[in-house]
Amino acid sequence: MKPIQVGLMADPAAPTEIAQQLSDLGPPGGEDREAWDIEIVSEPFSMDCEDVDTALARLRDHARQHEWDVVIGLTELPFRDEDEGRYLLAETDPERRAAVLSLPALGGIGMQPRARHAVRALVSGMAATARDADSEPLPRFTSRWRLLVGMVLANRPWLLVPGLKSALVAALTTGAVATINSTVWLLAGSLSSWRLIVATIASIALIVAWLIIDGGLWDRPDDNSADAKERSRLYNTSTLVTLTIGVILCYLALYVVNLAWALFVLDPAVMGGYLNKPLGYGDLFTLTWFVASAATVGGALGSGLESEEAIRAAAYSKREEERRNRLAAGRT
Fold it and tell me: Phi/psi at 189 (nearest 5 deg)?
C-alpha cells in the first residue's frame, strides 16, 4: 500500500521543535507504521491572529507544491471563530485535507504528547473522510485562560533571565555593596513586613514597565474593531504575565545570591552592637529582602539589556511582526 504523504508546516521556533518530534508519527494503534510518510517544513505560514482562512489557503498551496496528501500547520498563534467569538484548537478543511493547529490552545502543559495526539487525530480524520470545513472550538468558559497559559508557556519566560544578564550583574553588584552598609541595616530593620511586600511588588512592577517601554512591547489594535481590540488584549496580557514571571525568577535569584553573601560576610552580633539593638540571623533574611528590592530597581534600571531579542521574544505581537516581514520578504 502506498503510504499517505503527510506534510507538517511549522512556524519557526517552538512549533518547529514540536514538529520535528513528530517525524515518526503513525496511525492510531501503531498498526502499519509505514502508512504515513511525514515531511516537515519550517516556514512562517500564519500571518494574522484571526486570519485562519489565509493560513489554510497557504497550507493548501504548499500541499500542491510538495504533492502532499494531507497537510497540517502548527502555529503558536491563537485563532478565533469570527461568528461565535470562541478560540479554536484547530480549523480543518477535510475536503482539501488541510488543517491548522493552534499549539497554545493545547494548554501549554504536556504540550508534546497533546500535540502528538491532536496531529494524529487530524491526519486520521482527514485521511479517512471528506466533508465540509470544520472547527474545533475550545470550551467557552475556559478557552481564554487555557489559551493564555499556552501562550505564556510558549513564550518560555525562564529564558528571559539570560536576556537580563547585564541587569542582574549590576543588581548583584549594587546588592553586595548595600548589604555591608550600616544605613541599609537601619532602614531594613525599620520597615514592617507590609512595607517590604509593597517594595517587592513595586520593584518588580517597575522593571516590567521598563522592559515594555524600552522594548516597545505594548501592542496596539490595528483598527477599532472588537476583534483587533481582543487580539491586543490577549497579546498584552500574555506579554505582561511572561515578563512578570521572568522578572520574579530574576528577583528570586538575586535574593538567594545576596542572602548567601550576607550570611558569609555579616555577623548579627556585630551588627547589633553597631545599631545598639539585639539582632539574629533571621534579621539577615529581612535585610536581604530589602536589599533585593532596592538593588532590582537601582541596579537593573541603570544597565542595558544583554539581549534585546530575548526580551522581544516575550511579546507575541513582535513575533507576529517578524512573521509578516518574513512572509513579505519571501514574496519579493
Answer: -70, -20
